[in-house]
Specification:
The complex is a heterodimer of chains A (480) and B (447). In chain A, 20% of the residues lie in helices and 39% in strands. Chain A contains 10 helices and 23 strands. The longest helix of chain A has 18 residues. Chain A is globular. Chain B has 2 domains: 224 residues, PmbA/TldD fold (2-Layer Sandwich); 213 residues, no CATH class. In chain B, the strands form 3 sheets. In chain B, strands 3-2-1-4-5-6 form a 6-stranded antiparallel beta sheet. Chain B has a 5-stranded mixed β-barrel with strand order 7-12-13-14-17. The longest helix of chain B is centred in the first third of the chain and has 20 residues. The model of chain B has no long low-confidence stretch (mean pLDDT 96). The chains are: A alpha+beta (480), B alpha+beta (447).
Chain lengths: 480, 447
């Protein structure tokens, strides 16, 4: 399709942008030379509402807009942003970003700019702008009522809702302009129950790049049931014993294992700098044959889906590990150039205030050859990790951790007692090698995961089948 | 539109903007409102392996508004401050507020609490940080980068210098007016070294303050980062054990500071705090005394009024092991039927012991020196915690092998009474001025 003029793009005209103005700011940004430059226009609106003690007594809205201007010379980046979209303010920011270039920097040949199309993996209409607050309020009340009905021990229920549209327009010095509109909505639920004078709290969430139709009675009921069950089971739960043991990562949210143990280490910025433990491992066998891990931006309405990445590269499905062999890093434009490959559409950023870098989208492992029952039966003494709060990794040492909120003890091939609140720690490449079984029950988690890297948060999703890792270090207690 | 907050007059201009927005909110139908206008600028330089890697300039300005309309409440923020946008933004915000449910506890603070702001100069402004010369910054970074590479196993190192200055003004319809401005500087170095096989352990060091002079010599930061990275080589997990835990002064803040989550009015009122029934009770060793010190000269979290406008004052949080206060803002105070204190901590200052880290370690036969955290979390309803650690074994009063892939697990009400020694060496580059802390008989899990 031939490039189209920006005049046809409503977001551009709404921001007061046209081809000439964008051309002019790009020229300023590349005036001292550059490998490439880009402009990232953003206008984000969000609404959040909260219910506590049975009353919907607080709401918040936020409007955030601006343009981030980036000039890249080799591995060097000059960056400035402007919250004002006047030509003067943008040119000023462009000059600041351009200062990274020196006299010897190659000049950029100006390109005619044109609007490019991209496939849509989610609805890009003005979804949330059109939904009145009166339509959202009953969802919160419904969730509160459901939770209280599910168990009389439920003492406090807090529900928070957030929705928003993020509109972006990305213009590159290569002449491409992409426009995208990214909806997001989510509901987060906190339940506190009291039993025999003891209190326990748990949380649940449901997030999606979608409209209000996603929040059906069926899905909300499931969320409430799971959250109340996972709160009540905490009363019977204990700490597992401390030390190394086999760990089954249950299907779904356990994708946090992939995110921390493998995903971050395969982001190419860490590898081009030589600081990731995976830097020299491409082409090596890193896991058993039945392990295939993918990072995919193209799954419809997934929280981690993007139609186009934040530096104007098309999104894709990137195979990271195929049949146990490490295949690819996740690239942004800077690392792709250095490695001589095409970007994988992984260049993401939190907002116009930040520079893009390689990030995960939706990371998951495909089905394995075993069944869940076979996996449990294979464990003499170990645990099942079922729900998680957070995780992290040291990129170079390879040590990763994740915090287990709910899980189960396995004794002699049988699930015996619930456990709670333990941190699990392992080493990425060792844990990959130590995957001994994977089930045929892969699923994506529906919670609201946000990945943090160098101070920037971006929405991601993850999933996997039930997986048995031979040994990880489980935080726990040996009571004397 | 953009004011220059670098001048004293700049905060007056922000105050005028806040007053104008308050008038508009009232005219459009708000019964009460509080407005906050904040503006900040920052510059960040990153230097990696003998070359400049990134320069970023940031300038931001935002207006925040809390609205009280017909017994209902909401809050909003926008950085689109054009007059026509502001008017429609506030119109929509008031309409949204009217759609919510009334809550009698949503009120502005009692104006009596605005009184008594400290007259002391908190010393939060360093004019040399307003326009830190690019050449000076690059000179510092180049020296840091050089120092960070003084070991042949270094694979890569990055040093970062960030300076910022910011100002804010707050007004409310029941009589509060206040402004504040401050500068800050952060210097950071990260070093990755080659270990056996594919392992490339990394470590970092940093310093931060309100004044350039707070950092000391930036080259020391780089040296510290290098020393830490090299010391991680050959780290492995130790056996699971119950033993003494020495907490490095940089690691203590995150562990102890988490307790503040259980001290918040929201956690108490929502019954999500393991400390809710413990006010005026012994929760820790008598050695533990922590004060919330908002008037600390040059403190990173120093403030003369809090985020509701309530005048701050120093407050004992834990005194000789006894819990003395909760952090309760207006809303949860109203819900609980209590008097508000302040919504959250400022600087947390410890009563100090008389030994430093080396002397405390010299007293220990067997233990683990925790120098940093690796993930983990805590449950504020029960007080359970489980964190990954990085550190070293202590044997016969000396730091020996580096350990990793281990967790420390327990419950706060069990851990805090086990505090057996407090150092004399508070960490100076954070609002949590935590000294070295020693705890007896703590659960570690490993191989």
């Amino acid at each position: 399709m031939p490039p189209t003029s920006l005049a046809t793009e409503p977001f551009a005209s709404w921001l007061g942008l046209d081809d000439v103005l964008i051309q002019s700011v790009l020229s300023e940004a590349t005036s001292r030379g550059a490998d490439f430059a880009d402009l990232y226009f953003e206008h984000s609106r969000s609404t959040s509402i909260s219910l506590e003690d049975g009353i919907i007594s607080s709401a918040a809205t936020s409007v955030d807009q601006g343009v981030g201007i980036r000039v890249v010379v080799g591995e060097q980046t000059g960056y400035a942003y402007s919250e004002s979209l006047t030509l003067d303010a943008m040119r000023q920011a462009a000059r600041t970003a351009a200062a990274i270039a020196t006299g010897s920097t190659p000049k950029v040949k100006p390109q005619a700019i044109g609007l490019k199309s991209h496939p849509d993996y989610y609805e890009t209409g003005p979804i949330w702008e059109r939904v009145a607050v009166e339509e959202k309020l009953p969802l919160l009340s419904k969730v509160e009522t459901l939770c209280k009905q599910l168990d009389p021990a439920v003492q406090k229920v807090s529900v928070s809702w957030v929705d928003g549209d993020e509109r972006v327009l990305i213009a590159t010095s290569e002449g491409a302009v992409y426009s995208d509109r990214r909806p997001m909505a989510g509901l987060r639920l906190g339940v506190t129950a009291v039993k025999d004078g003891e209190r326990q709290t748990n949380h649940g969430s449901l997030y999606r790049r979608a409209g209000i139709e996603h929040f059906t009675d069926e899905r909300l009921t499931k969320l409430c049931k799971e959250t109340v069950e996972r709160t009540m089971v905490l009363f019977e739960s204990r700490m597992p014993p401390a030390g190394e043991m086999p760990v089954i990562l249950a299907a779904g949210a356990s994708g946090i294992l992939l995110h921390e143990a493998i995903g971050h280490g395969l982001e190419a910025d860490f590898n081009r700098k030589g600081i990731s433990i995976y830097a020299d491992m491409i082409g090596r066998k890193v896991a058993p044959e039945f392990v295939t891990v993918v990072d995919d931006g193209t799954i419809d309405e997934e929280r981690g889906a993007v139609n186009v990445d934040d530096e104007g590269s098309p999104t894709e499905r990137t195979t990271l590990i195929e049949n146990g062999v490490l295949k690819s890093f996740m690239h942004d434009k800077i690392s792709a150039k250095q490695y001589g490959v095409a970007p994988t559409g992984s260049g993401r950023r939190e907002s116009f205030r930040h520079t893009p870098m390689p990030r995960m989208r939706c990371t998951f492992m495909e089905d394995g050859p075993h069944t869940y029952d076979e996996i449990v039966a294979a464990v003499d003494h170990g645990i099942v990790a079922e729900t998680f709060l957070n995780g992290q990794v040291q990129i170079g040492a390879g040590d990763f951790t994740f915090f287990v909120k709910n899980g189960w003890l396995i004794e002699n091939g049988k699930i015996t007692a619930p456990i709670r609140n333990v941190n699990i720690i392992g080493n990425g490449p060792e844990a990959l090698r130590d995957i001994v079984m994977a089930a045929d029950d892969a699923k994506l988690d529906t919670g609201g995961w946000t990945c943090g890297k160098e101070g920037q948060g971006v929405p991601v999703s993850q999933g996997q089948p039930s997986v048995l890792v031979k040994k990880l270090v489980v935080g726990g207690e040996d009571r004397a | 539109m953009t004011t220059d907050v670098a001048t004293a007059g700049g905060t007056e201009l922000l105050l005028d903007e806040a007053r104008r927005a308050l008038e508009i909110a009232k005219r459009l139908g708000a019964d009460d409102a509080a407005i906050r206008v904040a503006e900040g600028r920052s510059t960040e330089f990153v230097y990696r392996d003998a070359a400049l890697e990134k320069v970023q300039d940031s300038a931001t300005k935002v207006l925040g508004v809390s609205l009280y309309v017909d017994g209902r409440y909401s809050n909003h923020q926008s950085n689109d401050l054009r007059p026509e946008s502001l008017e429609s933004f506030l119109t929509d915000a008031i309409a949204l507020t009217r759609a919510l449910e009334p809550d009698p506890h949503r009120k502005l603070p009692d104006p009596a609490l605005y009184e008594g702001r400290t007259e002391e100069d908190l010393d939060l402004w360093d004019p040399t940080l307003v326009d830190l010369d690019r050449d000076t910054a690059l000179e510092w970074l180049s020296a840091m980068d050089k120092a960070a590479h003084e070991d042949e196993t270094v694979i890569s190192s990055a040093s970062q210098l960030a300076v910022s200055h910011s100002a804010m003004a707050r007004v409310s319809s029941n009589g509060f007016e206040g402004t504040r401005r401050g500068t800050s500087i952060t210097a950071f170095t990260e070093v990755t070294v080659q270990d056996e096989g594919d392992k490339r352990p990394e470590a970092y060091a940093w310093a931060a303050g309100r004044h350039a002079s707070d950092l000391g010599d930036p080259v020391d930061i780089a040296r510290r980062a290098l020393r830490r990275a090299v010391s991680r080589k050959g780290s492995r997990k130790g056996p699971s054990t119950r033993t003494k835990m020495v907490l490095h002064r940089e690691a203590g803040g995150p562990l102890i500071g988490r307790i503040c989550g259980a001290l918040s009015g929201g956690a108490i009122q929502q019954e999500r705090s393991f400390l809710q029934d413990h006010l005026d009770k012994q929760i820790a060793s008598p050695l533990l005394t922590i004060t919330d010190e908002p008037w600390l000269t040059g403190g990173l979290a120093s403030r003369d009024f809090d985020n509701e406008g309530i005048a701050t004052k120093p407050r004992a949080v834990i005194e000789n092991g006894v819990l003395k206060t909760f952090f309760v803002g207006t809303y949860y105070a109203n819900k609980l039927g209590w008097d508000p204190t302040t919504g959250g901590p400022s600087n947390l200052v410890y009563a100090l012991g008389d030994k430093d880290e080396d002397q405390l370690i010299a007293d220990i036969d067997e233990g683990i020196f925790v120098t940093g955290w690796a993930g983990g979390n805590a449950d504020m309803t029960t007080g359970d915690f489980s964190f990954g650690i990085r550190g070293f074994r202590i044997q016969d009063g000396k730091i020996t092998d580096p350990v990793s892939e281990m967790n420390v697990t327990g419950a706060y009400l069990d851990l805090l009474p086990r505090l057996s020694a407090v150092g004399n060496d508070p960490f100076p580059w954070s609002s949590m001025r935590t000294p070295t802390l020693v705890f007896d008989d703590v659960q570690f899990s490993g191989s």
